[in-house]
Write a structure and sequence with these properties.
The complex is a heterodimer of chains A (365) and B (95). By secondary structure, chain A is an alpha/beta fold. Helices cover 35% and strands 13% of the residues of chain A. In chain A, helix 1 runs parallel beside helix 2 (71-80) and helix 2 (71-80) packs parallel to helix 3 (96-105). Chain B has a 3-stranded antiparallel beta sheet, with no helix packed on it. A two-stranded antiparallel sheet of chain B has the order 1-5. Classes of the chains: A alpha/beta (365), B alpha+beta (95).
Amino acid sequence: MTSVPPPIAMLAELTHRCPLSCPYCSNPIALHGKDTELETDTWARAFDEAAALGVLQLHLSGGEPASRPDLVELTRAAQEAGLYTNLITSGIGLTPKRLDALEEAGLDHIQLSLQGTKAALADRIGGYTGGFDRKMSVAKEISIRGIPLTLNAVMHRQNLDDLDRTIDMAVELGARRLEVACVQFHGWATLNRPALLPTREQTIATKKTVAEAEARLRGTLAFDFVPPDYYSDFPKACMGGWGSTGLNISPDGKVLPCHAAETIEHLSFENIRDKSLYEIWYDSAAFNAYRGTDFLPETCQSCDRLNIDFGGCRCQALAIAGDASATDPVCRKSPDHPKVEALLSEVMANPDDSFTYRKLARTPQ
Amino acid sequence: MTLAIAPNDRPYLPRGVRLHKDKVRGGTVLLAPEKAVALDTIGEAILTRVTGDASFAEIVADLAATYNAPAEQIEGDVQNFLQGLRARVFLMVAQ
């Protein structure tokens, strides 16, 4: 590649530990234990290298990043590196004292997840009794301090009918931004399609509700909407194109083009413990594997959307079409699109509201 | 709410939105929650004047004087630019 741009954003998955066990967690199914996690100094070096490489936005995520005792130190390191620092959290573990320390360390913004708008539903989805009430008190503490807040509402069949209330809640909590993030089927969500896939009617209603609320609340609440892509005509421009705008570091230091990239098993990923971020971004085989559009099949090459969606998501192409170089099968032009239709019909014929919760395996199977 | 900015309104960048010198790519970017917007020289000229103290009318007058351009023309451009940011809650105004 001759013209690889520097990355804009980095997702630092500080830990896979989490008090919640949401059945759609984007973490890989094989979770890393605490003993494999990068130490504070290595993260701090990664933040410095990221800033030098061109990263502007740092997302401190997990698992639950507040499960790291050194979260304040890491936030300070990120701030000192000159990065815009965003904390992606369930709120659990953020005491008022800790919020004060994070503010003092220079945290720029918090993205708070929302599993549902009522305790019964939210706690069932998160698999954590009392989680909703604790989250609401954290949200109030964030709001009192005036820390910029985004609410990240992860939506699926079991809570999409609550979207109106979700939007009202975002306004009440003083959020400036609401992500209506319909579950994308990677990681744990693939095990829970029968419980999570929305109906077509819900999908249509959701698009309408978001469009209306966006117009009504312009200037008060900004929206980011991720529609359920199985019902889309065209795929999402996943990661804005592989290895073009963002990267992800897993708790054990693997540097990935996206959080699901490890599902592409023929790729091997370099570790920040062994190599610089610069070398990994520009020179590693994994980052170069699906850069650009040359690898895409004729379906994409002859399509006027080639440089809009870059053929969609590589992980989804592998998961559904069986080939990571294929057109994302959610695209209606994809020869594999019938497989998406089949998944939808199968789930709609046999919906099942029970969850396989995310959990850390004690011994690898 | 209307996004239009009145002459006496004092626009400001709220907490969590700030200008940042991009050492790697050059130029200035506007950093906001989970977004980075690369600014052209006009955007940068406008936003460096958005201090929270200056009124919209003062910002337009300053730009018109600095770039020796008619205030009416500048006013439309600045209004459009700032309204776009206000729609995304990257900009707020004090009356």
